[in-house]
Amino acid sequence: MQVMGRISNLQKRGSKRTFGYLGASSAWSFGLFIFFFYMLSFISFLTDAVRLENFDPLWFIVSGAGFLPPIAIGLAYRFAYLNRRLERQRVALNLIIAGLAGASRNVSVGLFALWAGLDQSQLWLFRFFGGAFMGVAIFILWAIGNGSKIEYLSALRSLAETQNRLSSTRLQMPDQLASVNERLQERTKQALIPQLNAIRELLGEASTVREALDKLRFTITEQIRPMMLEISKDQPKPFKVQNLRKFRSVSAKLPDRFTLHDKLMVTWSSVVESLGVSIWLVVFGSPNGLLDIFIIFSIYFLVLSVFKFLLPNGRTFPRFNAIAYTLLVGFLASLANVYYVYRFLGFNTPQFVMLSGFAILSGIIGPLLLMQLSVRIEKRNEIESQITGDLLAIAKENALFAQRLWVFRKRWLLILHGSVQSSLTAALTRLQVAPEINAVTIEMVKQDLRRAELAVESNHTEGFNLDLGISELQEVWAGICTVKVQVSSRAKRALIKNPDSSYCVNEIVKEAVSNAVRHGEASEAQVTIDRISDDLLTVEVTNNGRSPKDDDRTGFGSEMLDEVCLHWELITEKKQVRLVAELPIKL
Q1: pLDDT in tens, 446-482
Q2: First to last CA, the chain
Q3: Using CA atoms, how far apart are residues 166 and 517, in angstroms rounded to an integer?
Q4: Which of 8, 256, 257, 413 fits 316 for a cystine, CB–CB 3.0-4.6 Å?
Q5: How far is the C-alpha of 545 from the C-alpha of 572, rounded, in Å?
Q6: Kind and range of the H or E element at 82?
Q7: SS3 per residue for 301-352
Q8: Is 401 helix (H, G, I), strand (E, B) or coil?
């Protein structure tokens, strides 16, 4: 079933998602520009105005004008390239374009600052590579946050759609089943009843008996037999919901309450902090080189670790409180690094202010972004787990629908083959073999026609006795194949309440034993029927015959199993063959 395939696909998704965020075309949105604007404006303030101790208002114009090249690059990339290849993942290309956007912005600020007389340093290589680094770093932060938000919303929509689908399936299935069955009965009546009436009228006079014979032959060969062939080949389709109600009221905001202890990602937050500060430690010539970068990482890591240790594991916090605590601990941890820079590294005032700004910015953004990412991933996983359960429920509902429809068509086929066709064949035979057509013969033929008409008009929805079906199966194969059947008490209680499922189980066992004897020359078959969960039956038929050929695995039996079961497989073991089938049962 397609639903079962989708469940498998959901379960196979893994950690590729986070990496896939970086290659998604959806990251190039207006939100990315806003994020770039605020982040690079703050960074530009630290690296230009603070570094030069020049706070001329012209910096606002210079900073704003510096965004023109990256905007052009982003728009060109988005509309000229990405819109034509929305399904492709372009991680490396996205990072390169982000780096070019950051570099062009930084170089543009330098050019405009030179033109305005605000900066004469002409550090073009530093501006280019520093801007490229910042562009890539900011894009990564945005892409991860934005990607988690999009997938969270997508999971919510999928959940709503599957729940709507499940609800609609349960509500509409009885009407759908009744409609299909009524159409089948009505089509049969429309085809046969007029013919039977016409034949009955032709029997009134001896001169028209020959015409009645021709109509009987036509009805049997050209109507009943093609109809039986069509019904036997017409597979029941899984229930499909029409006009699925769309789910619009979705939100990506964090839950009202969630645990914080497991959402505080200490190591990765410390990496973000150390990256934000280390580039400037290298530029300014940190006194202790890599040791200072390690100390910056360790101080931040230690403060966050102590805070996480003090947090109660498993306790939930209101959304506002969780965000406030995360901001506070990130700020305090970055302040500890600011103190270390001030106390031990000896930079001048502009350099110290720059380093402090980057330490606080990185120290706050890291844990806050990672906390939101962790919450959304957790909630998305919960949602997808629920989707999997709902999809399985839909698959069970579809299988139950297929069971009931299959049973009805199977019984209707038996009616056409047995009651209707046999009655008409009897009538035809009476007319053909009778030495003379007299009133007695005509009356007997009319009775045959009446039996066929009653069979078509009747409502065959009687129950089914599985014990009786199993006994008949054992009698059929007595002396050829010993059939032992074991039905658990749990399965028996459920099957008594579900005659359609009982009928399907009986047909599965009949087909399995028949195939084992015909194709595998089996002399023994062990049948086990159990209810492995409240709404799921398992049927196992083990025989001592040969393994079937590949050609024998397809046909009416396998089609039936595909229709009424959630899953089935034929397992060849040492000196035995085992059929295992799982099918739902209504409680």
Answers
A1: 787 777 777 677 655 556 788 888 888 888 778 788 9
A2: 22
A3: 41
A4: 257
A5: 10
A6: none
A7: HHHHHHHHHHCCCCCEEEHHHHHHHHHHHHHHHHHHHHHHHHHHHCCCHHHH
A8: helix
DSSP line for 90-156:
-HHHHHHHHHHHHHHHHHHHHHHHHHHTS-----HHHHHHHHHHHHHHHHHHHHHHHHHHHHHHHHH
Helix axes 209-218, 421-433, angle to 10 degrees: 150
C-alpha dist (Å) from residue 20 to 25, 97, 203, 219, 491: 10, 16, 78, 64, 46
Q: What is the DSSP string of 10-25?
A: HHH--THHHHHHTT-G
Predicted TM-score (pTM) above 0.85: no
Q: What's CA 393's distance to the chain center, in Å?
A: 13
Contact 470, 558 (CB under 8 A): no
Name residue, tokens 């991680």: 91
- List Cα–Cα distances, 251 to 150, 245, 295, in angstroms: 10, 18, 40
Alpha carbon distances (Å) from 137 to 14, 141, 270: 24, 6, 15
Cα torsion angle, 126, 51, 289, 278, sign: negative
In terms of phi and psi (left: phi > 0; alpha: psi -120 to 50; beta: otherwise), the region of 165 is: alpha
Question: For tokens 């008594």, what's the residue?
Answer: 496
CA distances 445 to 101, 266, 436, Å, are: 92, 91, 13
The whole-number pLDDT of residue 518 equals 78
Contact 51, 354 (CB under 8 A): yes
- Backbone phi and psi for residue 583, each to the nearest 5 degrees, phi listed first: -140, 145
CA distances from 41 to 35, 115, 134, 192, 349 (A): 10, 19, 12, 83, 21
pLDDT tens, residue by residue, 342-395: 989 988 888 898 889 889 988 998 898 888 878 777 776 776 666 666 666 666
User: Which residues sit opposite 579 in a β-bridge?
Assistant: 541, 570
Q: Is the pLDDT of residue 307 over 90?
A: yes
Count CB-CB contacts under 10 A for residue 276: 25
The rounded radius of gyration (Å) of the Cα atoms in the chain is: 38
Average of per-residue pLDDT across 99-109: 88
Quick one: pLDDT at residue 299? 95
354: exposed, middle or buried (Cβ count in 10 Å: 0-12, 13-18, 19+): buried
